[in-house]
Amino acid sequence: MKTPHVKVLTTPKGPAYPAGRMLISSPDDIAAVVASVPEGRVLTLGSLRAHLAARHHADYTCPLTTGIFLRDLAAVGPVAPWWRVVRDNGALIDKLPGQAERLAAEGVAVAGRGKAKRVEGFDARQWDPG
Questions:
Q1: HSE-up of 55 (CA within 13 Å, CB side)?
Q2: Could you tell me the CA-to-CA distances from 31 to 28, 61, 70 in Å, in that order?
Q3: pTM for the whole thing?
Q4: SS3 state of residue 29
Q5: Whole-Å CA distances, 51 to 30, 108, 127
Q6: 115, 100 in Cβ contact below 8 A?
Q7: d(CA 121, CA 45)
Q8: Fewest beta carbons less than 10 Å away: which of 8, 51, 86, 99?
């Protein structure tokens, strides 16, 4: 089982990896937050990562491992409602097949096609893990 840990980057490794305290989360940690998203609401990747970082006293959460662990959740089934996690602009995550259909089943309308699919009424649907 993977456990969350904070890695200190003394030099930036790119725009998404600035110097600072970076959390490498865990699948269980991500599943716990995603499981708390109410039906009919959506959580942005940015809010998920910020919440996890704050919980572990880090500056930010690794975007790469967050995406990998979220896809892992989708692959193992309905452990947590992974389909309720969207990009920061309300766009669906193209690497999560079936996301639009699952959201629609919960009454969340999705507009657009392909990579342009977005949650309609996104601002009203956003949920903050607090």
A1: 18
A2: 5, 15, 8
A3: 0.94
A4: helix
A5: 10, 23, 12
A6: no
A7: 17
A8: 8
pLDDT digits (tens, 9 = 90+) for 1-20: 579 999 999 999 999 999 99
Question: Which one, of 118, 98, 102, 121, lies nearest residue 110 by Cα?
Answer: 118
The CA dihedral of 33, 39, 40, 46, to the nearest 10 degrees, is 0
For the chain, the C-alpha Rg in angstroms (whole number) is: 15
> At 115, is the pLDDT very low, low, confident or very high (cuts 50, 70, 90)?
confident
Structure-block tokens of residue 112:
């657009």
Which residues pair with residue 37 across a beta bridge? none
Give pLDDT tens digits for 26-48: 999 999 999 999 999 999 999 99
CB 47 within 8 Å of CB 5 = no
